[in-house]
Write a structure and sequence with these properties.
The protein is an alpha/beta fold. The protein contains 13 helices and eight strands.
């Protein structure tokens, strides 16, 4: 299948590589020309403007946007509307707010352009392991694009979640759960660190141990093991932990629907608090975000 990828950052570039490996024809474009050139060397078709992206596709065109939520996505969609035709499809694979999806779909519908929201999880490991993908939009457009989702995802790693907004909504809740899990791990390791036993414990070994059949085993613990192997007491980074929109949106959704969500809410507030101190638990959170998503950390 032929598809375009706009945005060749940490995830977008590796998604192009995974699609190329699956036999798809990918038109790649990024505002940074060098990123496009790099993928052209690996087999992608390069484009150097949005108009050229559209010109190099075949109808019905499919354009995947892999950009930060907010203005970058809005501006790109505005540009694409100038060149796309009725029946073409825009897929937003970033972490957009589902209410923005609803608005965009309505606006594009007047031009006959379809809109699909795809919540993607996998971070910098997705090239090798695949990208867990949650999809919203019309069922027929999902069916048309399914070869793309199948290639990007691991086995049984993609799902049609429902109409417009459903994909990003499910991804939003996924990230809210992630906040709570990471917070629990961070607090647990801080309790160990503050105990009389802490100085004698190798936390990489503890994380490895807990992944051997225990009820708290997870990929996050595997990443914690990697982080502790690289920096046994996480002394090279600070405990400053950024938050992305999904955590805030999840808490707001809980408020709007009167669903008690104390763990996710407190984990969000803990990130706010992290900007005021440098606790061990927050250093664990910062290290985990670096390991699974390649997110920047603040070093001492």
């Amino acid at each position: 299948m032929k598809i375009a990828m706009i945005g060749l950052g940490r995830m977008g570039a590796n998604m192009v590589r995974r699609l190329l490996g699956g036999g798809h024809d990918v038109v790649a474009w990024d505002r940074t020309r060098d990123k496009t050139d790099e993928l052209v060397k690996e087999g992608a078709t390069g484009a150097y403007s949005i108009e050229e992206v559209v010109a190099k596709l075949e109808k019905p065109r499919a354009v995947w946007i892999m950009l930060p939520a907010g203005d970058p996505v809005e501006e790109t969609i505005t540009q694409l509307k100038k060149f796309l035709d009725p029946g073409d499809i825009i897929i937003d694979g970033g972490n957009s707010y589902y209410k923005d999806d609803l608005r965009r779909a309505r606006e594009l519908e007047t031009s006959g352009i379809a809109y699909v929201d795809a919540g993607v999880s996998g971070g910098i490991w997705g090239l090798e392991l695949g990208y867990c993908t949650m999809v919203g939009g019309s069922r027929d457009k999902f069916d048309h694009l399914e070869p793309i989702f199948k290639t990007l995802a691991p086995d049984e790693g993609y799902l049609y979640c429902g109409p417009t907004g459903a994909g990003h909504f499910v991804k939003m809740i996924h990230n809210g759960i992630e906040y709570g899990m990471m917070q629990a791990y961070g607090e647990g390791f801080e309790i160990l660190e503050a105990s009389p036993y802490g100085p004698n414990l190798d936390y990489a070994e503890v994380a490895h141990l807990w992944n051997q059949g225990s009820v708290i085993r997870s990929w996050l613990l595997e990443l914690a093991e990697v982080a502790f192997k690289n920096d046994a007491r996480l002394e090279e980074i600070t405990g400053h932990v950024d938050d992305s929109g999904e955590g805030r949106w999840t808490v707001q959704q809980a408020i709007d629907t009167a669903v008690p969500a104390p763990v996710i809410t407190e984990s969000l507030f803990a990130r706010f608090r992290s900007r005021q101190d440098n606790s061990f638990s927050n250093r664990v959170l910062a290290a985990l975000r670096r390991e699974f998503g390649g997110h920047a950390v603040k070093k001492k």
